[in-house]
Amino acid sequence: NQPKDWWRNSAVYQVYPKSFNDTTRSGTGDIRGLTEKIDYIKGLGIDIVWLQPVYVSPQNDNGYDVADYYNIDPAYGTMEDLDELVSELKKRNMHLMLDIVVNHSSTEHRWFQEAKSSRDNPYRNYYIWKDPAEDGGPPNNWQSKFGGPAWQFEEETQQYYLTLFDKTQADLNWENEKVRQEVVDLLTFWAKKGVSGFRMDVINLISKNPEFPDDDGSIAPGDGRRFYTDGPRVHEYIKELNENVFSTYHLVTVGEMSSTTLEQCIQYSNPEQQEFSMTFNFHHLKVDYPNGQKWELKPYDFEELKKILTDWQAGMQQGGGWNALFWNNHDQPRALSRFTDDDEYRNESAKLLATTLHGLQGTPYIYQGEEIGMPNPKWNDMTEFRDIESLNMYEILLQRGKTPDEAAHIVHVRSRDNSRLPMLWDDSDQAGFTTGTPWIKIDERYPFINAQSQVKDPNSIYHHYRKLIEMRKSIPVFVDGRYMRLDEGHPQVYAYARTNDEQTLVVISNFSKETVKFELPNKFTKNLMKNASAELLLGNTDEVPEFSQIIMLQPYGSY
Ligand code: TEU
């Protein structure tokens, strides 16, 4: 009974269940732990909760290695717990979005256990098998995104199988219509349980070039992504899912698009294409990667960041696509530490990032902890890390000739574990996350960085997010305003306007520690916004310039 495209003025809260809230003393979070905290999330004005994988899994990739798509892993609880979560959310007019990982399954999935048993097993072609190359090695030179070859040799049947991620994550063969039917069936199962939407994991990798050619190293040695990213049949497959499930159940869907293009994302998210509601892309989170290489370091390029955000705002608007807006997720270091000052100016920086993102066109995602200003942890040594990608890359960096300290430093900066420490609930023991032994360390700053104190303080980061979400719902220009960039290469400021002719929203964000003067182009008329009903988020300028906009000055450097 929601209006069409209702999610265009919604906000989504992303929950990494392993680190959210533990109610069983296991040291890992669980579904009941999330249900306990629904009102905390509701307090932000959130409409949709994206729950990351809680299916049966050996946890080699923290649940992104699914061994049974139809059952809840006992570590996270029971199907009854999931049903209770759905109904508790619905009581509050909130919605559950589940994470669906169908580019690959765990090698512990019964499909793979069948497939590996013999070449003529009916499940053999659920996966991608190839004979060894002439030299007995892997069929081509593709590398896994977690390091090492993208192929694993299976002794029993003497063939290699494709693993774009961990060696225990076997790529499913979407050329096989039985696999596509299995996906329709599992999506339908969850839709029938009242789930309102899906986040589709690396969904633009599901169609591989059937030749599986060697990569000539134009991006990086054996990169291979050109041969399976936004592949030949990917839109056909997604339209099939839309026709059979998404539109049948009026679901909100977001595709995680690894290494994709603007043109592709327009096609994936323009409603006329009937594919997804919106897409994640990651180009703005690679502006600190030298030559696109994640495991090398450089300071981030501010102008490139602003250009990418601008190109995607203008491009998706022009093409009729729809962005999932985000700075943070469970695969990225915390933006607070990456792009601003997470120490002396932590509070101001967190608000700066929030306003800068939430003023853009798209559906904003808040990743757990972002709303209370959680920074990257202070790492001591490699024993503190849990992420398979980080642990693999530490070894690979040593093989590339880095010293242990150099390799550890790169991992400290880049690791996905930077955003996977447990949520900080209050100043009680272990931040109120668990009374057991936490699976990963807890940030020792919880006595002064925690949700309880944030909710209590009306000027907190938490309430800043609440106001932004409130404005998104009550001021149309947040949703339909046309974007234009206002700063021409300013070294410290990112400024843009959004206008729908009745109103103009202006966001001026000072990403530096100095106070800056920023002259708005004089075409902005000088009459105060009539409906200044929304709580304006003002910087501490000593005078509020009279404009026909809601002006949000975020010169945190001048606080
Ligand atoms: O992420 C895929 C992805 O693009 C990132 O993991 C990135 O490739 C990686 O960090 C290398 O830089 C999705 C999930 O979000 C991630 O947690 C899973 O590990 C991955 O897919 C495999 O399912």
Give the number of DSSP strands: 19
Which word captures the global form? Answer: globular
**Helicity level:** 25-40%
The largest sheet, given as strand count, sense and whether it forms a barrel, is: 8 strands, parallel
- Please state how the strands of the largest beta sheet are arranged side by side: 13-12-11-5-2-1-15-14
Structural class: alpha/beta
**What is the terminal separation in angstroms?**
45 Å
Radius of gyration: 23 Å
Bound molecules: 1-O-alpha-D-glucopyranosyl-D-fructose
Give the overall average pLDDT.
92
How many H/I helical runs?
Answer: 15
Task: Indicate the topology.
Elements lengths: L11 E4 L15 H6 L1 H5 L5 E4 L3 E2 L11 E5 L6 H13 L3 E6 L3 E3 L3 H6 L13 E2 L20 E4 L4 E4 L6 E3 L5 H16 L4 E4 L33 H13 L5 E5 L5 H8 L8 E3 L21 H18 L4 E2 L9 H5 L6 H13 L4 E5 L20 H12 L4 H11 L36 H6 L4 H14 L2 H4 L1 E4 L7 E7 L4 E7 L38 E6 L5
Parallel strand pairs: 1-2, 1-15, 2-5, 5-11, 11-12, 12-13, 14-15, 18-19
Antiparallel strand pairs: 3-4, 6-10, 7-9, 8-9, 16-17, 17-18
Helix pairs in contact: 5-6, 7-8, 10-14, 11-12
Bound molecules: 1-O-alpha-D-glucopyranosyl-D-fructose.
Features:
559 residues, alpha/beta, four-stranded mixed β-sheet, 19 strands, 14% strand, disordered C terminus
